[in-house]
From TrEMBL:
InterPro entries: Cadg, Cadherin-like_sf, Sarcoglycan_alpha/epsilon, Sarcoglycan_C, Sarcoglycan_N. GO terms for molecular function: calcium ion binding. Component of the sarcoglycan complex, a subcomplex of the dystrophin-glycoprotein complex which forms a link between the F-actin cytoskeleton and the extracellular matrix. The lineage of its organism: Eukaryota, Metazoa, Chordata, Craniata, Vertebrata. It is found in: Cell membrane, Sarcolemma; Cell projection, Dendrite; Cytoplasm, Cytoskeleton; Golgi apparatus. The chain crosses the membrane at residues 298-321. This is Epsilon-sarcoglycan. It comes from the Eukaryota. It comes from Monopterus albus. GO terms for cellular component: cytoskeleton; dendrite; Golgi apparatus; sarcoglycan complex; sarcolemma. Residues 1-26 form the signal peptide.
Length: 418
C-alpha cells in the first residue's frame, strides 16, 4: 500500500469540495498512515504552469527545475522524511515512514521550485496529516536488499507493486504493507562505477500478519549460512519468482518477529546536584544581591607577585655586586705557568696591533735578513728603507727583486768544468 494522495483524491475521499483559489499558494493535503511507506511525487509538469512562458528563449517545456523541501519554520525536513531528485529534468520524490509519535500533528512542508533557466521560483505547501492505523505494527517484518534497483526506480508505484506482488506470492499473508525504503548509500554502500548499468541498491522493508514462509526460512539453514560466509549465493527455492525483475541478495535479508523481540529499557542515571530537575521552572536569583568588593582581591593578586619579584631582584643584585672575587684573588688561584702564557699572548697581540697601525716604521727583528753562511757578512735588507710596502706583491719573482744579492756558490772541481 502506497500512501500517496493528491488534493482532488482527498476531496473525493472525504466527500467534500475543495476550491483552490491560487495555485501559487495552495496547500495540498495528504493523509498517510503511521508505519506505512509514504511517497509523494513532485511533478515538474505541475509546477511549469507557475512560471510565465518565454517563447522566444527556447522550449519552455524542458526547463530544468529543481526543488527545495523543508519543514515550515525550519531549514530541513523531519527526520522520517527524505527527498531525492536525480536530475533537474526528472521529478522529485518525497518518501519516508512516519511513526506513531506524529499522529494528529499536521506537518507542513514548504516546497520551493526553482527554474534554472529563468531563475524564477514558485512555492507550495504540502500538509501531511498522519493518521493512526490499527494494523500497525505488523508482527512479522522482512527486509530485502535489491541489487539492481535505485531508490527512485523502486519508489515508482508500478515497480513497488510488482515487488509486493512477488513477496505476497511467496509469503501468502492476508495483509502486506511496504514499511520503508532505504538507499544502500545511506547504509554505508559505495557509489557504483558508471559501467555496465550498475545500480546503487535499495533496502525494502515489508510487514505481514502471518509467520514467515518456509522459502524465506531457507536463508537461516546452516548450509546457506556457510555459503554466505564464503561469499557464495545461497540456494533459495523461491528465488526464481524474483529473478525475472529483482535481483535479491539473500545473504542480507533480515527477518524480524516483533513478538519475540525483548524490549531494552535504558535506565538514566540520577542527576547530580548541578542539574535541574526534569520538571519545574527555573528560578533565577533575585536582583537584591549585595555587590562584592574586589579591592582586596586586586591587592593580593598584585602584591604577592610584586613582593616575590622584589626579593629575587635583591638576591640577584647582592650576588652579582657584593660577591665578586676580584682579579687579585683570581690570579692567586691560577698557576704561574698559565699566567706567563697568558701574558706572552697579550704582548704578541699588542705588538701586532701596533704594527698594523703604522706600516712605515722599522720592521721587527723577526723579519730582518740573516747573515751569509759562507762569508759571515750580514746580508743587507731586501728592500730599502724608502720601499713602499703597501704595493709589494704577495709572490715575488727575481725580476721584481731589484736589490736582491746573489749568494756565491762553491764551484765543483774537475777538468770538464768550464
Amino acid at each position: 500500500m502506497i500512501s500517496t494522495m493528491s488534493a482532488a483524491a482527498v476531496a473525493v475521499w472525504l466527500g467534500t469540495v475543495v476550491t483552490i483559489l491560487s495555485r501559487s499558494h495552495a496547500d495540498r493535503n495528504v493523509y498517510p498512515s503511521a508505519g506505512v511507506l509514504f511517497v509523494h511525487v513532485l511533478e515538474r509538469e505541475y509546477f511549469k504552469g507557475e512560471f510565465p512562458p518565454y517563447p522566444k528563449s527556447g522550449d519552455a517545456s524542458n526547463d530544468p527545475i529543481t526543488f527545495n523541501t523543508n519543514l515550515m519554520g525550519y531549514p530541513d525536513r523531519p527526520g522520517w522524511l527524505r527527498y531525492i531528485q536525480r536530475t533537474p529534468h526528472s521529478d522529485g520524490v518525497l518518501y519516508g515512514s512516519p511513526t506513531a509519535e506524529h499522529v494528529g500533528k499536521p506537518t507542513v512542508i514548504e516546497i520551493t521550485a526553482y527554474n534554472r533557466r529563468t531563475f524564477e521560483t514558485a512555492r507550495h505547501n504540502l500538509v501531511i496529516n498522519i493518521m493512526a492505523t490499527e494494523e500497525f505494527p505488523l508482527s512479522y517484518q522482512a527486509e530485502f536488499y535489491i541489487k539492481n534497483m535505485n531508490v527512485e526506480e523502486m519508489l515508482a508505484s508500478e515497480v513497488l507493486g510488482d515487488f509486493l506482488g512477488a513477496v505476497k506470492n511467496v509469503w501468502q499473508p492476508e495483509r502486506l504493507n511496504a514499511i520503508n525504503i532505504t538507499s544502500a548509500l545511506d547504509r554505508g554502500g559505495r557509489v557504483p562505477l558508471p559501467i555496465n548499468n550498475l545500480k546503487e541498491g535499495v533496502y525494502v522493508m515489508v510487514g505481514a500478519d502471518v509467520a514467515f514462509s518456509s522459502c524465506l526460512r531457507e536463508v537461516e539453514s546452516p548450509h546457506n549460512q556457510l555459503r554466505c560466509s564464503q561469499e557464495m549465493e545461497p540456494v533459495i527455492s523461491c528465488d526464481k519468482k524474483f529473478r525475472a525483475q529483482f535481483h535479491i541478495d539473500w545473504c542480507k535479508i533480515s527477518l524480524v518477529d516483533i513478538n519475540k523481540v525483548v524490549p531494552v529499557y535504558i535506565t538514566r542515571p540520577d542527576p547530580g546536584t548541578g542539574i535541574l530537575p526534569e520538571f519545574g521552572e527555573y528560578n533565577p536569583p533575585s536582583e537584591s544581591l549585595k555587590s562584592r568588593d574586589y579591592f582586596s582581591d586586586f591587592i593580593i593578586t598584585l602584591a604577592v607577585p610584586s613582593a616575590v619579584a622584589l626579593v629575587l631582584f635583591f638576591i640577584l643584585g647582592y650576588t652579582m655586586c657584593c660577591r665578586r672575587e676580584g682579579v687579585e684573588k683570581r690570579n692567586m688561584q691560577t698557576p704561574d705557568i698559565q699566567l706567563v702564557h697568558h701574558s706572552s699572548i697579550q704582548k704578541s697581540t699588542k705588538e701586532l696591533r701596533s704594527m698594523s697601525k703604522n706600516r712605515e716604521i722599522s720592521w721587527p727583528l723577526s723579519t730582518l735578513p740573516v747573515f751569509n753562511p759562507l762569508s759571515g757578512e750580514v746580508v743587507p735588507p731586501i728592500h730599502p728603507d724608502n720601499y713602499e710596502t703597501t704595493s709589494m706583491p704577495l709572490m715575488q719573482t727575481q725580476t721584481n727583486l731589484q736589490n736582491q744579492i746573489t749568494i756565491p756558490q762553491q764551484r765543483p772541481s774537475g777538468k770538464w768544468y768550464s
